[in-house]
Design goal:
Blueprint (H helix, E strand, L loop, with lengths): L2 E5 L3 E4 L4 H14 L2 E4 L10 H14 L7 E7 L6 H10 L2 E6 L19 H10 L3 E3 L13 H16 L5 E3 L5 H9 L3 E5 L1 H5 L23 H11 L6 E3 L8 H4 L14 H11 L6 H13 L7 E10 L19 E6 L1
Parallel strand pairs: 2-3, 3-4, 4-5, 5-6, 6-7, 7-8, 8-9
Antiparallel strand pairs: 1-10, 10-11
Helix pairs in contact: 3-4
The chain binds N-carbamoyl-L-aspartate and zinc ion (2 copies).
The site of one zinc ion has 5 residues, from loops.
């Protein structure tokens, strides 16, 4: 195949940051996607409807002139979120989900939830008004191996949560294991997003010839059997799996550091990365539904009507793109790509 025309996709898990960083990264997402679920892990986080409204205004102000883009907002769940916050958010129409971060699990998660059971009154309200819950699905206990954090989260937190709130609609974000794939397939009212890095790479990539911080994200890349399970799920045609890049920009120096930040920047070339992954599984015909149909269907939003085109063209991912005071290294910088968005 030389040319791929798809309904314009949406990104169902995206970090846009704020200020100068927002202005630098947003045009990349706008080039590819019509809408995105915008993560609330700013400093301080987006906790209230007022925070979300103000952040949404800043995003809209940063959209390049003449371009269309709709930010879909999320609230950051804390130990102090109230059922009233949920009711107000639902009424706003622009807050589409609430995000759970276990305290300390990932970038800017210091204000996250200390014990998921503390939020049961909030989950009750979310189930009631049908507000989706988005999960960073990892436990943070120091004795749990970093490669087991997702599996243990499913066993210890998610299975009981789904038993308490079977109708609560959940997205297990950026899944990384066959355990997550199996759980999502077997459980009602739960879907999952899958990132390009978890479809393309296994954990060897983090250590190829030396330590490679630009392949470090959370949940961390897993072994090859898990990558294959994710690729199989994404290309299976199941509506439970859809696109969420988790594009998470950090300056080059904060990644190339003695204590480097977690996160891969993929907004520059997200659709090209997914196309490479789907082509590797001989499943380019499944890309459109994964990228453009199953996400809006889950969020009960209309599918987009415009189209995008990718062509078979060789190009090299740049070593760096402009960002803030320091540059930003795209995922898989220097690699030769074979698909390019027109
Ligand atoms: N995925 C990451 O490794 N990092 C994300 C946070 C997150 O999605 O967990 C970030 O905000 O940098
Ligand atoms: Zn996360
Ligand atoms: Zn994320």
């Amino acid at each position: 195949m030389q040319k791929l025309t798809l309904t314009r996709p949406d990104d169902w898990h995206l970090h846009l940051r704020d200020g100068a960083a927002l202005k630098a990264v947003l045009p990349h997402t706008v080039r590819q996607f019509a809408r995105a679920i915008v993560m609330p892990n700013l400093k301080p986080p987006v906790r209230s409807l007022a925070d979300a409204a103000a952040y949404r205004d800043r995003i809209i102000a940063a959209i390049p002139a003449g371009k269309q883009f709709e930010p879909l907002m999320t609230l950051y769940l804390t130990d102090n979120t109230s059922p009233d916050d949920i009711v107000a958010a639902k009424a706003s129409e622009f807050v589409k989900a609430v995000k759970y971060y276990p305290a300390g699990a990932t970038t800017n998660s210091e204000s996250g939830v200390t014990d998921i059971r503390r939020c049961d009154r909030v989950f009750e309200a979310m189930q009631q008004v049908d507000m989706p819950l988005l999960l960073h699905g990892e436990v943070t206990h120091k004795d749990v191996d970093v490669f087991d954090r997702e599996k243990v989260f499913i066993e210890q937190k998610l299975i009981p949560l789904k038993q308490r709130f079977p109708k609560l609609r959940v997205v297990l974000e950026h899944i990384t294991t066959s355990d997550a794939v199996e759980f999502v397939l077997a459980t009602n009212n739960i879907a999952a997003t899958i990132t390009p890095q978890h479809l393309l790479f296994n954990r060897n990539m983090i250590f190829k010839g030396g330590i490679r911080p630009h392949f470090y994200c959370l949940p961390i890349l897993k072994r090859e059997t898990h990558r294959q399970a994710l690729l199989q799920a994404a290309t299976s045609g199941s509506p439970k799996f859809f696109l969420g890049t988790d594009s998470a920009p950090h300056t080059r120096n904060s990644k190339e550091s003695s204590c480097g930040c977690a996160g891969c920047f993929s907004a520059l070339h997200a659709m090209e990365l997914y196309a490479e992954a789907f082509e590797s599984a001989d499943a380019l015909d499944k890309l459109e539904a994964f990228a453009s149909f199953y996400g809006p269907d889950f969020y009960q939003l209309p599918r987009n009507t415009e189209q995008i085109t990718l062509t078979k063209t060789t190009w090299r991912i740049p070593d760096e793109v402009p960002f803030t005071e320091a540059g930003l290294v795209p995922l898989w910088a220097g690699n030769e790509m074979t698909w390019q968005m027109v």
